[in-house]
């Protein structure tokens, strides 16, 4: 066909009138109404801060970590498991296949799960605001009731996801810290039991204290004997040896010296000394083990308390800022907007083709 056959009138009919007529027929007769339901959510984390006088208080707060958790929820909303789960609960495939003659936006029967998930993501819009950290969820349905039902189901699943995720992390941390605390407690109890068994078996409360007491008694007896002997010598200088006072002092000196020799013999004998030294060594070992176990128990207890606080910090909750509502009018398709957009595109195409045809005709002439 010659370029002269492309008259402006024919071009307008082919490039503007026909597409606009088809578009008008589609949007007025074929296109199915799509209703939307919108909700806004955020993830709230518990913050732990010291209160007045030292106790711990829990408060709600959001921050960068809360925003990160909100992004996790954003990915979860578009996840394959959620799409398949909602399909089983709400019958999404059946609903999206009931769009009448609208072939552009309907879900074709018999498609794979992968294609269904892609279609689901195109019907569930998620938008994250980096200004306030809110996540907006818009769901589309061919009926307002279905759009609202899908949005509510997504919120319930997202809330369950946040709760399970945060509680699982907190529980794992608490389980580890509790295990360390229980092990330290058992070790400390065992060390104390061995120490008590040692004292009961040997019938001695503290061999170290007993050795110290024996040494103190020996020193005291030595001091007493020295004092009495000095007093005896002093009185012999002016009294008779058979004087009653001299006899009494001499008896006291002999009694204290005998007791002193007995104490020295008891503490310095080979068998008693070896036994007492062995008891001291064993007692000091048990005492050291008990002290170490007690320190480990205290550290484990402090770590457990810190783990409780940290676990409380990791607990999250889903906050619904705007609950979904039932739509009264269909948001899609935007018929007037789409027809005007189509008219603009047709006008651009017409102008380009008209310019090409005019150029060709000019060269032919």
Please characterize this protein's 3D structure:
This protein has helices spanning 8-30, 64-77, 80-90, 92-96, 113-123, 144-202, 207-236, 244-268, 270-314, 335-364; strands at 35-50, 56-61, 124-128, 135-141, 316-322. The chain is of the alpha+beta class and 365 residues long. Strands 1, 2, 3, 4 and 5 form a five-stranded antiparallel sheet that branches. The longest helix is centred in the middle third of the chain and has 59 residues, at 144-202. Residues 48-64 and 269-273 have low confidence and may be disordered.
Brief summary of the model shown:
This protein is α+β, with helices and mostly antiparallel strands.
Give the topology, please.
Elements: H1 8-30, E1 35-50, E2 56-61, H2 64-77, H3 80-90, H4 92-96, H5 113-123, E3 124-128, E4 135-141, H6 144-202, H7 207-236, H8 244-268, H9 270-314, E5 316-322, H10 335-364
Antiparallel strand pairs: 1-2, 1-4, 1-5, 3-4
Q: Strand content of the residues, in percent?
A: 5-15%
Distance between the termini: 16 Å
Q: Report helical residue fraction.
A: 55-70%
**Global outline:** rod-shaped
The major pleated sheet works out as: 5 strands, antiparallel
Strand and helix order = HEEHHHHEEHHHHEH
**Class by SSE composition:** alpha+beta
Contiguous low-pLDDT stretches (5 residues minimum) are: 48-64, 269-273
Averaged pLDDT, please? Answer: 79
Rg over CA atoms = 48 Å
Enumerate how many helices there are, as a single number. 10
Care to count the β-strands?
A: 5
């Amino acid at each position: 066909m010659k370029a002269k056959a492309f008259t402006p009138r024919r071009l307008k009919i082919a490039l503007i009138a026909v597409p606009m007529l088809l578009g008008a027929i589609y949007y007025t007769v074929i296109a199915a109404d799509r209703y939307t339901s919108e909700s806004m959510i955020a993830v709230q984390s518990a913050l732990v801060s010291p209160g007045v006088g030292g106790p711990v208080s829990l408060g709600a707060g959001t921050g960068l970590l809360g925003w990160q958790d909100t992004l996790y929820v954003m990915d979860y909303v578009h996840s394959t498991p959620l799409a398949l789960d909602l399909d089983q609960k709400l019958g999404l495939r059946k609903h999206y296949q009931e769009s009448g003659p609208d072939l552009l936006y309907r879900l074709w029967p018999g498609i794979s799960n992968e294609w269904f998930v892609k279609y689901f993501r195109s019907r569930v819009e998620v938008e994250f605001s980096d200004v306030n950290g809110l996540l907006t969820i818009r769901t589309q349905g061919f009926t307002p009731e279905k759009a609202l039902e899908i949005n509510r189901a997504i919120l319930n699943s997202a809330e369950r996801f946040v709760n399970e995720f945060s509680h699982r992390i907190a529980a794992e941390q608490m389980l580890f810290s509790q295990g360390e605390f229980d092990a330290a407690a058992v070790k400390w109890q065992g060390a104390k039991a061995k120490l008590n068994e040692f004292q009961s078996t040997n019938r001695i409360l503290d061999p170290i204290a007993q050795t110290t007491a024996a040494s103190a008694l020996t020193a005291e007896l030595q001091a007493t004997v020295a004092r009495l002997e000095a007093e005896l010598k002093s009185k012999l200088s002016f009294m008779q040896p058979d004087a009653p006072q001299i006899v009494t002092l001499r008896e006291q000196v002999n009694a204290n010296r005998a007791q002193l020799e007995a104490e020295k013999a008891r503490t310095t004998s080979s068998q008693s000394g070896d036994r007492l030294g062995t008891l001291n060594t064993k007692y000091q070992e048990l005492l050291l083990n008990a002290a170490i176990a007690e320190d480990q128990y205290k550290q484990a207890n402090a770590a457990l308390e810190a783990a409780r606080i940290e676990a409380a910090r990791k607990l999250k909750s889903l906050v619904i800022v705007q609950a979904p509502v039932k739509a009264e009018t269909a948001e899609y398709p935007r018929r007037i907007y789409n027809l005007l957009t189509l008219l603009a595109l047709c006008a651009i195409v017409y102008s380009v083709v008209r310019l090409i045809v005019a150029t060709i005709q000019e060269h032919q002439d």
